[in-house]
Specification:
single chain, 7-stranded parallel beta sheet, globular, 32% helix, two-stranded antiparallel ribbon, alpha/beta, Alpha/beta knot
Length: 199
Amino acid sequence: MSVERSRVSVEVLGWLPVERESPLSITLVQALQAGEKMDLTVQKAVELGVQRIVPVISRRSVVRLADQRALRRLEHWRGVVAAACEQCGRNSLPEVVAPESVDDWLQRRPESNVLRLLLAPAAGRSLSSVPAPRADVRIDLLIGAEGGLAADEMQRASACGFLSLRLGPRILRTETAGLAALAAIQFLWGDLKEEVTNV
């Protein structure tokens, strides 16, 4: 190693690989939230191991983004993702895509091998009743805005293969629902239950 006034040189003698990526491939499809709630959701979703975040505009979304404003928010969220990855030591940056309407997103044909989950307080089935997906199955988790998804959006999601699930007896706020579901998914099927870590 050498230290000079404007330069420091070091020799790397070894490298220890550390894997902190989740074994699950999860896409969080989150209806836009007001204020700083979306930033919090993006940050914590990254810490909980999501691979992709899709912001969607639903009928009950208070926030409406278009054109330049949407691009500025997208860049901002990508910065939030990078900072969250640094904080939690993730190996790769999750993707954040441009906001679009939930209807447009639902019209796209899903790839094969996708388990699609939707939180709905009135659903008769809980997350724990869903069998663990195979290792090659991706998970799409759809979360509504304040007040949840509209009835027609729920019907369209159901027609597109989403399973409606409830997460306990209480109705959760939009900023709580997705994060609670992600934590439960990671505990049931992912890496939160591991007893040995490489930290």
